[in-house]
Amino acid sequence: MTRSYSAHTLPQQKQSWHTYSVAKTLDTLGTNPQTGLDTESVNQRQKHYGPNEIEETAGRSNWEILLDQFTNIMLIMLIVVAIISGILDIVELRNSGTARSGVPFKDTIAIFSIVILNGLLGYLQETRAEKALAALKKLSSPQVQVIRDGKRQEVEAPSLVPGDIILIEAGDSLCADGQIIECSHLNIRESALTGEAHPVDKTPLSQGLQEDTPIGDRINMVFTGTEVIQGRAKVVVTGTGMDTELGKIAEMLQSVETEDTPLQQRMTQLGNVLVTGSLILVAVVVVGGVLRAGWGLLQELIEISLSMAVAVVPEGLPAVITVTLALGTQRMVKRHALIRKLPAVETLGSVNVICSDKTGTLTQNKMVVQEVETIGGNYQVTGTGYEPSGEFICSEAKSSIHCSRYGALQALLFTGVLCNDAHLSQESGDWIIIGDPTEGSLLALGGKAGLQQSRLEQEYVRVGEFPFSSERKRMSIICQPSQTKDGWPSWQTEPNDDYVLFTKGSPELILERCDYYQQGQRVQPLTQEEREQVLRGNNGMAKRALRVLGFAYKPLKQIPDATEADEAEQGLIWLGLAGMMDAPRTEVKAAVAKCRAAGIRPIMITGDHQLTAQAIAQQLGIVQPEDHVLTGRELERISQPQLEQEVEQVSVYARVSPEHKLRIVQALQKRNKFVAMTGDGVNDAPALKQADIGIAMGITGTDVSKEASDMVLLDDNFATIVAATEEGRVVYSNIRHFIKYILGSNVGEVITIAAAPLMGLSGVPLIPLQILWMNLVTDGLPALALAVEPADPHIMERPPFSPKESIFARGLGFYIVRIGIVFSIITIALMSWAFYDAQQPGNDPDSWKTMVFTTLCIAQMGHAIAARSTTRLAIEMNPFSNLYLWGAVIVTTILQLMLVYVAPLRAFFNTTVLTGEQLVICLLFSSLMFVWVEFEKIVLRIYRKLKT
């Protein structure tokens, strides 16, 4: 009978159920394994525990995201400028009946249009819905078989409660955590939770496990979101909803707070500097103008201030950055990296630590036999993946061999192919395995010796089998050789025997059942000396992180009964060992070396065993043999401050859980590391979200991991991360190029506008609409072209720049100020001459303003050509390497001339027609900008030569 509980005595879900025996668990939960819970208990528990669902906390609404876009300090300043400009237009309309610039509110409308456009760009980047928790919910099976009131029934998954008795079988997706009461050949794939591809054999335990047993080793428990591959079981539910292991991951996922990317932080800093500098300069101009000419020029000073405010804000910068990042994403897709969040493109360039999973990312996610050993010799096996192509190399002779000449070796290969339930096939040029990867590796091994499964199965017809189980740890089949003796292998000692038993499995267990061993074409008694030799070989392979199988066979006179397995599997003939592993990807070792050359530290974080992780890491150059590997159990015992010290020395973490991955990433970030983290399982989602760059696997990754990530690897390859990092560096480098190009012009505009009243010139040299044109079109088009400038060939031969460095770091700020001053000196010199010339009889008195406008615009074209490189002269660079720049320069120059010579545009932008002489003077003054930047390069080159 089930027990009734009052609400305050109901069992707590948060207990270490894996440490309990089955009897203790059932007693604690007050349930009966035969009859389950009664209806009253179920109702009582549903009210107490709530539905078996993942709970989701509310995030920002779309309206909140939209409003947040207009809290940017530069947009706020533009909004204030637009409002003041509108007020001045209203005042002018009331006083004179006409607007200041001919069309009422023209500047206000133009500025507000830019503000709204920039706000929408930011909104579109941020409104990608947070779908990770929604994907978590999909992992719950909608229906489940349960025993309640002594009857078997089917219920909705959300109605499950702790204490329910559920029945699971092959093909089911589990929707609650539980402890196994009884099972038969239960095999569960837990890759979504642990990240490891190999299915786990489960079994009930009469005694519980240790408290610190990792999730992957809790063989008496089942977990939400995992899949039953084989067998069936009766399970008592121990955890539902947020109290499952999956719920813990959801809780961690929701607790992770996202921070601004380095680019977003730098743009915020840029806005603060520009707005502060602008306000100071405005104050100087207004105070200086009032002191010089009195309060009568206050409206003109306000108009000048408005123009300065518009000039200081790079209105086209957000759009240029967005397009640059979008172009970066396109280039990355060609390199098999899909960017989900635009800022991640640039962020990749700052990465100095890459935390990578092992399976499928650093390795092929394909079991490959590396080594075979018989009592007669050791053989290395070449080849990659499941392709049945490779060589057998004798370790002693160091030369390739023909397997048919080595009886024990050929017999082992026969056994591996025949004692096998997998199938090897070729699809679209790729070799794939249908079935267990371990068995698939044996088919590929046999294929390398020319043994085809289909042919062997015709010659040796399977007539019986003793299947593998977690208790037996071996598999045997009974085959009947065909009557035709042609093609029988040389090792077949008694071809007249009616049947042959082939066995594979745990080397130690199979060796115990062997009395003989194969040597060439003869069978010899197995002595203690040979047994010790086999065990030494087995231990050596295990230390090299190989998964080892033993092989044996035995002639039979008749087919044994299914109940006679133990007797039939005695007196076997030992054949040898095969060691296999999920081999490293061939290209990853070079990628790891490239990482190190670029100042990026690769770290392996895996749920796999310590020896396997260390062996793979050594092969790839991630660690040295003497380096320490930190395990999940060790992580449990150290504090977070201790871990923060450890992360500086440890590059391999094995047998880790989801909480450990999150702790490792946080510890690295505390040490000022900029972390990229890869993952494919549900368990990786919190760490992916916490990392500065979360990278999900496109092939093996779960929906949860993809939704929590910034980038998805379309080929699940570590080398692709390195390629994407290179693209990130290129993007950041180009962003710095066009920022210095755009802001140099803006500083020149501001100083020029500020100089006009201080020089006693009447009127504003540039109206806000003209400044918007310069910032959006004249600056914007060449800036976009600079964004696709080819990469520096040595970009991956230097350490990454600090993600916390200022946008003005490494001389960029000084360059902007210096070039801005040169810009203003050139333009002010022209403005002085042009203002004097405009006052001459017969000349248009406003032509000086158009000359200033045109000179600033055309000068930027020369600046764009020179800004392609900080060291090489324009004449030294390949003019065809960036045709977009030349196209932008030509198109922008034509558009600028249209504002001067096309009547409707001239009227809208308040320009005047320039004479041929005036246009030539503008072009001459504009060319001085190009000459100055090139001159700086020559001076810098001479200085460096003298210094060396």
Compose a concise summary of this entry.
The protein is α+β, with helices and mostly antiparallel strands.
Note the main attributes of this structure.
948 residues; alpha+beta; Calcium-transporting ATPase, cytoplasmic transduction domain A; Rossmann fold; Calcium-transporting ATPase, cytoplasmic domain N; 11-stranded mixed β-sheet; 8-stranded mixed β-sheet; 33 helices; 46% helix; elongated
Would you mind describing this structure in some detail?
This protein has 33 helices and 28 strands. The mean pLDDT is 84. Strands 10, 11, 12, 13, 16, 17, 18, 19, 20, 21 and 22 form an eleven-stranded mixed sheet that branches. Helices cover 46% and strands 17% of the residues. The radius of gyration is 37 Å and the shape is elongated. Among the domains are: 7-56 and 134-255, Calcium-transporting ATPase, cytoplasmic transduction domain A; 337-361 and 586-718, 3-Layer(aba) Sandwich (Rossmann fold), CATH 3.40.50.1000; 368-583, Calcium-transporting ATPase, cytoplasmic domain N (3-Layer(aba) Sandwich), CATH 3.40.1110.10.
